């Protein structure tokens, strides 16, 4: 079947109401999705298959997550967990999706239609080996290549990531286990967490988009993993070994610790921050729970050690409109949506259709 035919089939599928009381089609091919009478979020994850990487889409309509298609990236996955955050991310206000191909050292951009359907735009070399994380600020993109221990920059031109000459930088000497690269909210800094060497690297980004050499800081606790930024540009980092969160100021170009607070769970690995509300959501992979913190000017308050019990092995996280938290459960091979309310958290499970190699999560809610 041609790519055009596949996209037409996926578009038609989105007009069908899925009945989730029975078995649903596996998201290994364009499948049935629930109809939308209004705005609906589309959640994406990667198959990460070594036989051919694909973006797997799910449509969230009225609180129901239904498979909504599979879209080849043109690259290869690794067939194993990436141990990272940010393997697939939206760009250009949700009109573009960027996905890493860890098995073929490349990055793919895909155009996002209003109904969430994807069409591949370009696949380009990542500038190193084993890309695991990607970050975007405006039209500037940086990719973290964990295999080569480097970051490389790109400019997005009509959805195509064009390599930025002279932008490749090495992470700090002795760094190991690179997990995530992310821009500060103003785009002036890049931060990389390194699980194996218990450190953070900070890069200053110049007006041409090129990063400086790395400035290394020892982390407050072992295994710094996923992170995000608060509204003041402070890095909010999960510490997996202690199941804790640490905040750092990066305004000077070097990470400086501000606060540290355990969450009482187990293996806090993935973390996202709602800047409008100042809430940090932490996935405790070992205990199957979500903890929440209040983050204000780098200060931390643990608002709920167990804000939600999701079970399984919660890994990648993404936030949708209204602070709906989307999670990939690596034990039950499914996506989950968590809605927080006055009477507690409501957890909705999608069908168990993800491959065991799946990695990353992103949401486009427009």
Termini separation (Å)? Answer: 29 Å
**CATH architecture type:** 7 Propeller
The helical percent reads under 10%
Biggest pleated-sheet summary: 5 strands, antiparallel
Poorly predicted runs: 1-37
List keywords for this structure.
disordered N terminus; mainly beta; 3% helix; Methylamine Dehydrogenase, Chain H; globular; four-stranded antiparallel sheet; 29 strands
Fold and architecture overview:
By secondary structure, this protein is mainly beta. The protein has a single domain (3-364), classed as YVTN repeat-like/Quinoprotein amine dehydrogenase (Methylamine Dehydrogenase, Chain H), CATH 2.130.10.10. 3% of the residues lie in helices and 50% in strands. Strands 8, 9, 10, 11 and 12 form a five-stranded antiparallel beta sheet that branches. The chain is globular and about 50 Å long. Residues 1-37 have low confidence and may be disordered.
Task: Describe the protein's topology.
Blueprint: H1 3-13, E1 41-46, E2 54-61, E3 64-72, E4 88-91, E5 96-101, E6 106-112, E7 118-125, E8 131-137, E9 140-145, E10 150-157, E11 160-163, E12 169-170, E13 178-183, E14 189-194, E15 199-204, E16 215-218, E17 224-229, E18 235-239, E19 244-249, E20 256-262, E21 268-274, E22 279-284, E23 289-296, E24 299-309, E25 314-319, E26 325-329, E27 334-341, E28 344-349, E29 359-364
Antiparallel strand pairs: 1-2, 1-29, 2-3, 4-5, 5-6, 6-7, 8-9, 9-10, 10-11, 10-12, 13-14, 14-15, 15-16, 17-18, 18-19, 19-20, 21-22, 22-23, 23-24, 25-26, 26-27, 27-28
